Amino acid sequence: MTTHDSSAPPLRIGLVGAGPWARLTHAPALAAHPGVVLSGVWGRRPEAAEALAAAHGTDAYTGEAGFDALLATSDAVAFAVPPDVQAPLAARAAGAGRHLLLDKPVATTVAAAHEVADAAGRTGVASVVFCTLRFARGTAPWIAEQAAAGGWFTARAAWIGALFAPGTDNEFAASPWRREKGGLWDVGPHALSVLIPVLGDVTDVVAARGPADAVHLLLRHTSGASSTVTLALDAPAGAAGTEVEFRGEAGVSALPEGGGDALGAFRAAVDALSEAVRTGTPHPCDVRFGLRLTEVLAQAEAELGRP
Length: 307
Known about the structure:
Elements: E1 11-16, H1 20-32, E2 36-42, H2 46-55, E3 60-61, H3 63-72, E4 76-79, H4 83-95, E5 99-103, H5 110-123, E6 127-130, H6 140-149, E7 152-160, H7 176-186, H8 188-199, E8 202-209, E9 215-221, E10 226-232, E11 241-248, E12 251-254, H9 262-279, H10 287-305
Parallel strand pairs: 1-2, 1-4, 2-3, 4-5, 5-6, 7-10
Antiparallel strand pairs: 7-11, 8-9, 9-10, 11-12
Helix pairs in contact: 1-9, 4-5, 5-10, 6-8, 8-10
């Protein structure tokens, strides 16, 4: 896990998004980070952008001209908007030479994710995709340990949410893109961000539908290991939970519980971006990795659409 270099000048990071994720995680983490200046908040809803900016003592922006103005005052841009809003804005930001702190998934189409990755590649900007478990204090070291151990035979992952269950008051239930795209696209990146570093890239994908928005994936990896993945957002409340388990020569290893809070994980992602900016060394969870996640999920989506 990287830490902030106190000798480096502050990184001016603009925030794109003013919804619950931005309000609960991105804005407070950026505003409190000792190596960052929160250079502004851009939102599609002016009133939301103004409220969030005022809460953290920075400027609010909206609209096309406002996005360009945010870029003009920023070294990097953090995103907390739906993926298919994020992708074209991130490509513009990278094209303008701004470093990227992206949310997962980068986009829900391969073409859009490619545009972001290609723009970042042309200008040489640093990038990090905020896959929470890759940065959380209790899970990031565990993932690295399993990757170092090797010898894994198979793995299983389950990311099952009850976002839309009756009686739940989760703010993210009002998210149209999550309702439309379901667990495959919202929590699928989380599962893949743990499995791929340990088992290797995905070479084969088989996908089947379950009840509601549930999706089951059978994956083959470059190491020769296989994995099974269950993803859902619309499960009953009693079915919700997250599990990852690897089985192999070293025995059985399970994802630790209570891996850490989102604020701490996001701060670690900011540290990782700062380090990539300072050194020029790409982070393992960068926009190219984000593109690969989109490619695998799009392949699964295509499998699900076949008769």
